[in-house]
Amino acid sequence: xxxKAGISTFFPSYSQTPGRATLEDMLKFRVLIDFAHNEAGxxxxxxxxxxxxxxxxxATVSLPGDRREEDFEHCSKIIxxxxxQIVIFExxxxxxxxxxxxxxxxxxxIKTGMDESAITMIPDEKDAVxxxxxxxxxNDLVVLSNYDIDATHAQVMQYKNRMESEYNRS
Length: 170
Hints:
Blueprint: H1 2-9, E1 22-25, E2 30-33, H2 39-51, E3 57-61, H3 69-80, E4 85-88, H4 100-111, E5 119-121, H5 125-135, E6 141-144, H6 149-169
Helix pairs in contact: 2-3, 3-4, 5-6
């Protein structure tokens, strides 16, 4: 009986599955928050993003610094297949120097054929989220593959509340 009740009330949301496919309607565009952090996660996230209708797809991405260079290459290939604009940030440097994660991603995204103008490098995770949200236009999908899920969700909700307030004033 408990399982039946759980299944019947389940809906992917921040309260039930924080960091896993949380979709927010932002009036003019949508935001998808997901904690993808490896090749398999980015494959599922990219496929899901491609299944959602959107004019453009914008993503924030990173990998922990202890990942192998080939992991950056594989993830870059996957990401380049699904997004029009990529915002790279750094979060867990681990053994890497500041800027190294940004440059690895940039190098491999360009290697896949992605235009350099579609790649933005912003070291700070929160600043990367702001840039992605500010870049969104009507009917876009912004995919935030961030590590600090609570802070990212709070930032998205603040942005949404500000958008709704501005809309209601006009």
